[in-house]
Specification:
It contains 5 helices and no strands. The protein is mostly helical. Helix 2 runs antiparallel to helix 3 and helix 3 packs antiparallel against helix 4. The termini are far apart. Keywords: Signal.
């Protein structure tokens, strides 16, 4: 009888300990979500996709479901990692473009071509990740060589 009583008490103690760990984990996840909101709420201004993420995190942080909070935190981390990578790539390309423009690489036509790319990319920071990716790919080309078309004075590249 004493053994059964000890086993029951040990089991109850385990439940209490388990519940305490759960509550601590729950508080920690909520704290991390609140930190994300505090850290990014001003950086997201002007970027509707980013702002929606911050609003979603803020709303989920107030929910009771630990699973929902953990899922949202994980999804945001993936989104944010991609966002930062794309923005780093855009910054690198802008630096390259500025260098090509200042060196007048390829002459006047190519300078205009690079200036057009630069303008497209400067505005990309406030766009969705998908649109950032598209603009980065579309504006990552080198200035194409002017084609030699005999008998025609035709600007194949639209004036660049």
């Amino acid at each position: 009888m004493k053994i059964i009583a000890l086993l029951v008490l040990a089991n109850l103690g385990g439940i209490a300990l388990s519940n305490k760990l759960y509550e601590e984990h729950d508080r920690l996840v909520t704290w991390r979500l609140r930190n994300i909101v505090d850290k990014y709420k001003y950086l997201a201004t002007g970027n509707s996709e980013f702002s929606q993420w911050i609003e979603k995190i803020n709303n989920v942080a107030a929910q009771r479901s630990l699973e929902a909070r953990l899922d949202t935190e994980s999804e945001f981390k993936q989104y944010d990692k991609q966002r930062q990578l794309l923005e780093d790539n855009i910054t690198q390309r802008l630096n390259t473009l500025r260098s090509l423009i200042s060196l007048r690489k390829g002459g006047k036509r190519c300078v205009r071509f690079y200036q057009h790319q630069e303008n497209e990319l400067k505005n990309a920071y406030k766009l969705s990740n998908q649109r950032k990716q598209e603009l980065y790919i579309n504006n990552g080309m080198e200035c194409p060589a002017r084609p030699e078309i005999q008998g025609y004075d035709y600007d194949y590249y639209g004036g660049y």
